[in-house]
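Below is our example:
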Amino acid sequence: MRPQKNDEALVDVLDVLLRDGAILRADVIVSVADIPLVGIKLTAAIAGMETMTEYGLFEEWDASRRAAVSRGQYATRESVPGPDERDDRSVDWPHDEDRKRDEDA
């Protein structure tokens, strides 16, 4: 039996993953000479945003992002000129604010 590529199966898996979501959990213990030194507990969630908010994940982020979009705080890609098209003397562009905030953090 040879493996076959089935694009429809991949689409079905992505559909279920985004609709229902998945949680991956892993516990890792690093030991030396049977002496546990470090414990790591990892949890990852993957799902569509609608599913994430249904499960109570990213609710605050989603609400603040939607509020910012409704206020027009975030410009669309079409309305923000590229670096070669803008006049830096007149306006601080939205992505510049993000960069400044990241630099200050």
